[in-house]
Structures are given as C-alpha cells and as structure tokens.
Amino acid sequence: MGEEISLEEYKKAYRVMVAEDEKRGFLTHLVVYVLVNAMLIVINLLYSPEDIWFFYPLIGWGIGITAHYLWGVRWLEKELKKREAIAEYRVREIKKGMK
C-alpha cells in the first residue's frame, strides 16, 4: 500500500476539498444569478418599461448570494476548524467515558 498520512494532513486535504466544492457551488449560484437577473431586466424593460421592478429580485437574491459567499467561501475555513475542534473534544469525552 502507500505510506500512512497524519491526521493533520488528512484535515488539511479535507478542508481543501470542501473549499473547492463550496467555491464551485458559489460560482454556479453566481452564474445563475447573473443570467436570470439579466433576463428579468430585459423582460421588464421590454414589456413594462413604465414600471421598473427588476431591482427587487436583483436586490433580494443579491442578499442571498452575498450570504452564500460569506458563509460558503469567505468564512468556510474558520467554520471547518471550529467543527474539527468540536469533533476532537467529543472524541476525548467519549474516550474519558470508556475508562
């Protein structure tokens, strides 16, 4: 087989893998946001230019996409480290209970 990997190496690789997945998810969300909102702007300006409403979904969804970026990309590593610390704490508590 191959050589053993340390827990720290595993955790680092796992964090990288999760970060890549989250970034890919965010970019997909961003592309859909841009395409759908561009379509809504065109529809609004073509069919009811006297009543400008496209900015409502643009702003509402923009808040959602901002939250997705902050929690899914920007603050992700901090959250993963926090979860790892909680998991390590729980393992230690379980080991204490077994003694």
**How many runs of DSSP E, i.e. beta strands?**
0
Low-confidence stretches: none
Structural category? mainly alpha
Compute the gyration radius: what is it? 22 Å
* Amino-to-carboxy terminus distance: 34 Å
The coarse overall form would be elongated
Q: Order of helices and strands, N to C?
A: HHH
Average predicted local confidence, pLDDT: 93
Oligomer status: single chain
In terms of DSSP E residues, the strand content is under 5%
Continuous helix count: 3
Approximate helicity band: over 70%
Largest sheet: none
How would you sum up this structure in a few lines?
The protein contains 3 helices and no strands. It is mostly helical and about 100 residues long.
Report on this structure.
Helices cover 85% and strands 0% of the residues. The protein has helices at residues 7-47, 55-74, 76-98. The longest helix has 41 residues, at 7-47. The model has no long low-confidence stretch (mean pLDDT 93).
Which helices and strands occur, and which strands form pairs?
Blueprint: H1 7-47, H2 55-74, H3 76-98
Question: What distinguishing features does this structure have?
Answer:
85% helix; 99 residues; elongated; 3 helices; mainly alpha
